[in-house]
Design goal:
Strand order of the largest sheet: 1-27-26-25-24
Mean pLDDT: 87
Low-confidence stretches: 1-38
Number of helices: 0
Order of helices and strands: EEEEEEEEEEEEEEEEEEEEEEEEEEEEEE
Shape: globular
Length: about 325
């Protein structure tokens, strides 16, 4: 299937509607159909580092180097809120599971929790000594983890905003963090080319994952089981298991840096984005390349599937977010 190029106008966020996945996956790599009818266009005045769907799929939040996060209503197509207060670029944004709170992390070294309905700051978490580069919430919403250029991972109690642990083990900046679907594990990846696994409840290090030969730029756990995927500075997407703590497969497709990775909530697809501006889709069953989207004119910093696995959002340094129609997979 030929790559599909969508509208590339400056500072745009484009939304597309998506079909459903089939029960029969035997030929997934050949049967993904895509359409490109734009539904909504949004705008940020600077590079976009992250995008996140609300748990009900009705809202989209975005984080930008313009020092703001925005919340968009996907039903009306209107901007609902612009969240101002950070003193530097906002690098990560994520809804908590109840959908009522939004967490942001910023290059100003802080995290903030916002009321989604009012845009009021409910809590500010400070402690990092350098830029905060990444943040993740546990699936149950009880914990937050953040990492950055002070080379540590900090774990926070989401209810009280109190710091629980400071996890040391990386020798350089922490680029990505993620919790496992069962809330038991925390993973962190670093510029030092290491991927570390931690016990989320105690903060104990469980050990490194072997097999990376480049900076670990992004990580995502599968929605079930012990697998995870990483995006690496050598352009490869790697599949590993938390049980064995080893890489079991390498997916090659990006032309240079792979920056981000995500699993669909139904577990059938992996999406990855890279410095090449492309978004790649992979089958989790066959680990084969499904399709390539010529998505952006600059690095793709974030990819995320909607909760029902029917939309895919990509956020880029080219100041755009695009939400793609994946189409229907045929039997």
């Amino acid at each position: 299937m030929a790559p599909i190029a969508l509208l590339q106008g400056t500072r745009q966020v484009i939304l597309y509607a998506v079909g459903s996945l089939p029960n029969n996956e035997h030929d997934l790599s050949r049967r993904l159909l895509m359409t490109t009818k734009p539904h909504l266009t949004f705008r940020h005045p600077n590079a976009v580092y992250d995008a996140s769907f609300s748990p009900d799929g009705k809202l989209l939040a975005s984080a930008s180097l313009d020092n703001t996060a925005k919340i968009w209503d996907l039903e009306s197509g209107e901007e609902r809120l612009t969240l101002r207060g950070h003193g530097d670029g906002v690098c990560t944004v994520e809804f908590l599971p109840d959908g009522k709170k939004l967490v942001t992390a910023s290059l100003d070294k802080s995290l903030r929790i916002w009321d989604v309905a009012t845009g009021v700051v409910m809590a500010t978490m400070s402690g990092h000594q350098q830029y905060v580069e990444c943040m993740a919430a546990s699936p149950d919403g009880r914990l937050l983890a953040s990492g950055g250029y002070d080379n540590v991972v900090r774990v926070w109690d989401a209810a009280t905003s109190a710091q629980k642990f400071v996890l040391t083990g990386h020798s350089d900046a922490v680029y990505c963090v993620a919790f496992s679907a069962d809330n038991k594990l925390l993973a962190s990846g670093s510029y030092d080319q290491s991927l570390l696994l931690w016990d989320a409840a105690s903060g104990a290090q469980l050990g490194p994952v072997t097999g990376h030969n480049g900076t670990v730029e992004g990580i995502a756990f599968a929605p079930s089981g012990d697998r995870f995927a990483t995006a690496s500075g050598d352009g490869k997407i790697r599949i590993g298991t938390s049980t064995s703590r080893v890489v079991i497969a390498e997916l090659v497709g990006h032309r240079n840096f792979a920056k981000c990775v995500a699993y669909s909530s139904d577990g059938k697809l992996i999406a990855s984005g890279g410095r090449d501006g492309e978004v790649l889709l992979w089958s989790t069953k066959t680990l084969e390349h499904v399709t390539k989207i010529e998505a952006h004119s600059n690095s793709v910093y974030s990819v995320e599937f909607s909760p029902d696995s029917t939309h895919l959002a990509s956020a880029s340094f080219d100041r755009t977010i695009k939400v793609w129609e994946l189409g229907k997979l045929l039997d």
